[in-house]
Input
Amino acid sequence: MFQKLDDIINSTTMYRIVLYSLLWLIMVALIFSILGVLDYSPLAMAGSLAVVLTVGFVTNMGLAKLYGVEPNFESGLITTLILFFVLVIPTNTSQWLALCIATFIAIASKYVLTWHGSHIFNPAALGAVVVGLSGIGFSAWWIGTPVMLPFVAIAGLLILRKTRRFGLFFSFIIPCLALLIWHGSSLYSLIFSFPLIFFATVMLTEPATIPNTNKRRIVYGLLVAAIVGLGLSTYSSPQFALLVGNLLAFAVSFRVSTKLKLLSKTELAPNIYNFTFSPNRKLTFLPGQYMDWTLPSVKFNSRGNRRTFTIASSPGKDKINIGVRFYEPSSAFKQKLIDMKPGDTMFGGRVAGDFIMPRDTTKKLIFVAGGIGITPFVSMLSSMYETKTKRDITLFYFVNNEQDFVYKDVIENAQQYGLKLVPMVGPKASLSDKVLQKHIPDYKDYEYYLSGPPAMVRIYKKSLKKLSVKKIHTDYFSGY
Output
C-alpha cells in the first residue's frame, strides 16, 4: 500500500502536498457545513476563507514589493489556510477584525521577523498567539471536531509520509497525550475534540522552522509536547508551545537565506548538468546534506518555484554545486533553471538532512548510488579528499550506460584515500548477495548508504534487510 502511496506523492513537491491537503480539508468542511453537520454556516465559512486569502495575498504582494523580493505564493497560501482552521469563524465585527490582524501578522512575520532572510517563527502560530494575548480574538481550533478527524488523519498521513517526519510526530504526540491524561483529560476528548493531529502533522512539521537533523527534531517534539502537556491555559496552547519550540530550533540550526549567483553551467552527460554558484554569505552544512532552492519568476503551476537539491560540493569550498538531471518535458522550474545564464540568481534556504557520514573514520562504508543520486556522495568524497581523510568506502555506482558516469574527477581523487569504485552499468546490473560477496566478503559488517531514485532505494533497502545488514541509511528529501 505504501509503495503505491509513495508513487503518487513523489510526483509532486512537499509544499504542494501540504497545500492540497489543506484544500481537501476545506472542501470537506464546506460540504459538512452545507449538510448541517458543522455548526458554522456555509456563508460564514466562505466569508472567513475569503478574508484570510485576500488579506494574505495583499500583504504578501505588498511586503514583497516593499522588500524587493519575489513573493512565495505557496508559503503564503499555506499560512492563511492554516489560520482559517485555527481561528474562530467570525460572527461579529471584532472577530472579523481579529481574523484580518492575525493574517496580516502571520504574513508580515515572514518578512520582518527574520534572520538573514530566514523566518524564525511559524507564521500561523505567531498570528494566532498575538491576537490571543492581546485580547483581540481567540483560537477556536474548530478543525478539532470528531467529524473532521478521519479526514485530518488522511491529510496528516500524506504529509508525514512525504516529509518522513514520523519520528517528530510520535516524539510529540505520545508524551503530550500522556501528560494531558495525567492532568485529567480523557483520551477520547483529546483525540476527537482537540486539534492534536492537525497541529502535529500540519504545523509542527513545518520545515522552515524546525531543527535540521533528526535527533534535534526529536528533542524539539518533546519540548513542545511538554509545554502543551503542562495545561497552563494560554501559555500551554499548541500555538504558544510551537513558538517556544521555534526559538529552540532557531538557536541550534543557524538558518540563513542565501542569494546565489550562477558562475557556470556544465553538461556532464546527456541531460545531466552541474551548476556552480557563488553564495553571498558563507554556508554551513555537512557533506551529504540538502538545501531548499527557490527560483524567482517561475509561473505558479502544479509544482511551484521551490525544489530541494543535494549540495554536490565540499563545505570547505566557497562555491556551491548542484547536479541536476533534466527530463522531457521539464517542469517550469527546471526549464527556468536550464535557461539560466552566468550572473543570474536564485535563492537558497533551509539546509538539512541526516544522510551524513559517521564521525568515526574507522567505520567501513558502502555507498550505493543510482544516477544523479551520486550527488551526496560527491560532497562526501570531495570533503574526504580535501581534508586528506582516509576511509574504507566502496562505491557501487549504477548507471544506464558508461556516458552517464559523472563527477569522475571527484571519484578519482577520493581513490587516493581509500575509495573503491565498482561500476554497475546497464539495466540488468543488480546489487545481489553474490555481487557483494565478490567485492566485499565481509559486506554484512559495513554501514550502507543508499541514494538514487525512490524505487531503487526502496528495493535495495528491503533486499539488504533480508541479507541481515544492520545499518542502512537512505537519502530522502522532499523536493522531487
